Amino acid sequence: MIAELICVGTELLMGQVLNTNAHFIAKELAPSGVDMYHQIVVGDNPKRLTEAVETALSRADVVLLSGGLGPTDDDLTKETVAKALGKELVLFDDEWEKLKYWFSSRGRAIAPNNKKQAMFPADAIILENPNGTAPGCIMEADGKAAVLMPGPPRELMPMFKNLVLPWLLEKAGHRLYSREIRIFGMGESDVTYRLDELIKHQTNPTIAPYAKTGEVTLRVTARCRDDAEGEALVLPVIETIRATLGDVVYDTNGRELAEVCHHALIESGRTLAVSESCTGGRLADAFINYPGSSAYFIEGDVTYSNDAKMRRLGVRKETLDTVGAVSEECAREMAEGTRKAANTDYALSTTGYAGPDGGEPDKPVGTVFIALASEDGTIVKRLNLFGDRDRIRHAAMLNALDLLRRNICTK
Amino acid sequence: MIAELICVGTELLMGQVLNTNAHFIAKELAPSGVDMYHQIVVGDNPKRLTEAVETALSRADVVLLSGGLGPTDDDLTKETVAKALGKELVLFDDEWEKLKYWFSSRGRAIAPNNKKQAMFPADAIILENPNGTAPGCIMEADGKAAVLMPGPPRELMPMFKNLVLPWLLEKAGHRLYSREIRIFGMGESDVTYRLDELIKHQTNPTIAPYAKTGEVTLRVTARCRDDAEGEALVLPVIETIRATLGDVVYDTNGRELAEVCHHALIESGRTLAVSESCTGGRLADAFINYPGSSAYFIEGDVTYSNDAKMRRLGVRKETLDTVGAVSEECAREMAEGTRKAANTDYALSTTGYAGPDGGEPDKPVGTVFIALASEDGTIVKRLNLFGDRDRIRHAAMLNALDLLRRNICTK
Q1: Alpha-carbon distance A119 to A265, whole Å?
Q2: In angstroms, rounded to a whole number, what is the distance separating the alpha carbons of residues B366 and A189?
Q3: Pairing with B5, which of A70, A243, B33, B272 sits 20 to 30 Å away (CA)?
């Protein structure tokens, strides 16, 4: 089965909006066995949209469309596609009642214009939209289908995932089961090199790597009849990946590094404090972004100045005067000082040169020391990071999380 | 002049990569007077690429292409486009020498495959690529042109901005002058409503709004002969916008809110400390992300627990027992406590319910108190924010920055 995507919207052609819908749909579609050979962006222009729809129908089985379902005169995707498929739009009373209720329950007046949002071809399949006023729909004719979805990503994404993808899979005669393997401490090219044979011979499940700053995700997806069959297909592949890559694999359920630490802390009943120099609040932020972090996160100290390092954490003046703030000793004293002040089980610290200026001959920009203090003593690690200031600070934060993960999860 | 964009890459069709190139090019092109009616994504497939190029050449003056300039067999954009334009590729000795030098200077061996990256039609214009091995090029024939650029955004973006856009503007006979107006504290629909007349009647300069979480940017762009003429066209529009919107306009040179605070602190010679509960490190992070922040940023206290609030900041137990940590009083005591401990000119604090759980009947999730302490006393503000945890924490951070901005910049 071949699908083609047409994103409708002058705002995409003007660069006012990043086309996250195309990325999302492509990513969700990739493992489904439905092929996509073309993605098209056209403006809200009936002539060019008609041409795009006719071309797409000539070379694909299913045309997926996003955008142009709003109430204004500019919104003409439904009218244009219906015409191309030789269909008339009629008012769906149920949808019109729902729409009126949507407005009245929010204390807003409904405009006469909104009526067109309740009009569809008589034989259309309606796609409910709990996140907005524009329902989507599926129009079928001559063995081909057009799937119309609203443009705003927070409306389109759940609609595609919950309604359109299952419909496509039912047409294709199978389901999908997917797991995300998260990796820290090994680059994408290294990961794919080590898994070369596995990736080369993949058929079902498929293995797709995605990289983002400092991390790699592998999505393993099986086409299957049900979840049990999917799991049976996916688990051996996950085990092979884990055996090949070792302990750089930190999760097989798509959780972030901070999330893994967050749950490990909650489950272990241990508490945490952090003291940050170069990461400057970003490490604390990573934990506090998860609800429930108050169970273990006692305090964070952003001791960016030497004065604060000494006053808040008890870093020794001698240390700062001799080896300096960017040193193994300072990282150690920061972690131990924070742990003592906050009276926690664990304390993490970071200190380093994030650049662009600064550094020393033997400690250039990108040199960062991280430490983890616990009842078992203190582990200090030197990192040699690269990139701009933001990237160095981000990588330092991830490395500190990984240091904690490796030393809390194994207990 | 009409341009059409063709992004070449199977990774885009598979959802492995978000198409930021299309967004960037569209955004840069929008004010130039060059129209774009179609954006196309096709895979690394010679037949489908040839069709796309032929269709684009039939309806546009300039075809912009990204991707497929690498050394592998999959990379065939140059070969395909040259063929469509009836051109042969020949080796450019200069480019081959540069390529060899690029590899040898990095201590890497050059593969025979790389030779194709130095091959172009004899009459092509070469587009230098300081950020990678694949130069771009412009091929012209029969009054039409194809502009070929590499796929990686960090190679394409500078090439488009520095070489392609000036070439397009020269063809179109003008230049561009652009300024970004940054707004905090007014939503996009409110901004565009108030500027409705100005936006409706815009011709030159043009005014384009862009929204991101909690903020609005207006880009004002003039088509002009030189910067002086551009500035003369843009400045009166900026003044009208500022007069219409008032002090929600915090910068007219595209700087971030944190960046404006950062420079105001450096210029005023004042110092800062922050204490954070619900923003949990994100506020400190916003400052420390700018190089040079050590000049004023003395310390940050992430006092997420009540214990840390009392121990680190001297928040009174009575306050926590009676009105609670999410209160005007607690925000005030946090800011004043941090300012005293760190001995700074300014101290900012945040405390609130970021959700998803928690809150009180009269202080639901989204209720946040922020405070600014200085020698003039302490200002406390109650915020009623909405959205998910991340959005509430982000908005709280921006509001704290804005509180500082309004009270430091005017002095």
Answers
A1: 53
A2: 42
A3: A70
Alpha carbons A221 and A234: distance in angstroms, whole number: 7
Give the list of residues 6+ apart from residue B266 with CB closer than 8 angstroms, or none.
B292, B295, B296
Angle B266-B267-B269 (CA atoms, 0-180°, nearest 5)?
A: 65
Minimum distance, in Å, between the CA of residue A324 and any CA atom of chain B: 15
Q: Is B66 helix (H, G, I), strand (E, B) or coil?
A: strand
- Partner-chain contact B356 A291, CB within 8 Å: yes
As a dihedral over the C-alpha atoms of residue B62, residue B67, residue B68, residue B69, rounded to 10 degrees, the angle is 80
pTM, to two decimals: 0.81
Closest CA–CA distance from residue A344 to any residue of chain B (Å): 12
For residue A291, list chain B residues with Cβ-Cβ distance below 8 A: 354-357, 389
CATH topology of domain A257-408: Maf protein (3.90.950)
Residue A288, chain B, CB below 8 Å: the answer is: yes
Task: Determine the CATH number of domain B2-172.
Answer: 3.40.980.10
Is the CB of A42 inside 8 Å of chain B's CB atoms? yes
Q: Which residues on adjacent β-strands are paired with residue B209?
A: B218
ipTM of the complex: 0.77
Interface contact flag, A301 B303, Cβ < 8 Å: no
A42, B36 in Cβ contact below 8 A?
no
Q: Is the pLDDT of residue B128 over 90?
A: yes
B355 neighbors B373 (Cβ within 8 angstroms): no
Partners of B294 on chain A (C-beta within 8 Å) are: 304-305
Tokens 């982000």, located at residue? B394
Write the burial class of residue B398 (CB in 10 Å: 0-12 exposed, 13-18 middle, 19+ buried): buried
Locate the domains of chain A by residue range: 2-172, 175-251, 257-408
Helical (H) or strand (E) element with B155: helix B153-159
- C-alpha distances (whole Å) from B162 to each of B6, B94, B257 are 20, 21, 27
Return all residues near A395 (Cβ < 8 A) that are at least 6 apart. Answer: A213, A214, A383, A385, A387
Of A39-43, A169-173, B401-405, the range with the lowest mean pLDDT is: A169-173
- Give the closest-approach CA distance of B112 to chain A in angstroms: 21
Q: Is A276 within 8 Å of B281 when comparing Cβ atoms?
A: yes
Query: Cβ of A305 under 8 Å from any chain B Cβ?
Result: yes
Question: In angstroms, what CA-CA distances link A175 with A29, A178, B13, B134, B340?
Answer: 12, 10, 21, 41, 61
Residue B388: count other Cβ atoms within 10 Å of its Cβ: 13
Nearest residue in chain B measured CA to CA from A48 = B37
Architecture of domain A175-251: 2-Layer Sandwich (3.30)
Chain center to CA of B365: 29
pLDDT tens digits along A49-107: 999 999 999 999 999 999 999 887 778 999 999 999 999 999 999 999 999 998 888 77
Q: Which of A299, A307, A308 sits opposite B308 (nearest CB)?
A: A299
Does B43 lie at the interface with A, CB-CB under 8 angstroms?
Answer: yes
- At B259-315, the pLDDT tens digits run 999 999 999 999 999 999 999 999 999 999 999 999 999 999 999 899 999 999 999
Q: How far is B38 from chain A (nearest CA, A)?
A: 5
CB pairs under 8 A between A and B: 221
Asked whether the beta carbons of residue B13 and residue A37 sit closer than 8 angstroms, the reply is: yes
Contact flag A26-B43 (C-beta cutoff 8 Å): no
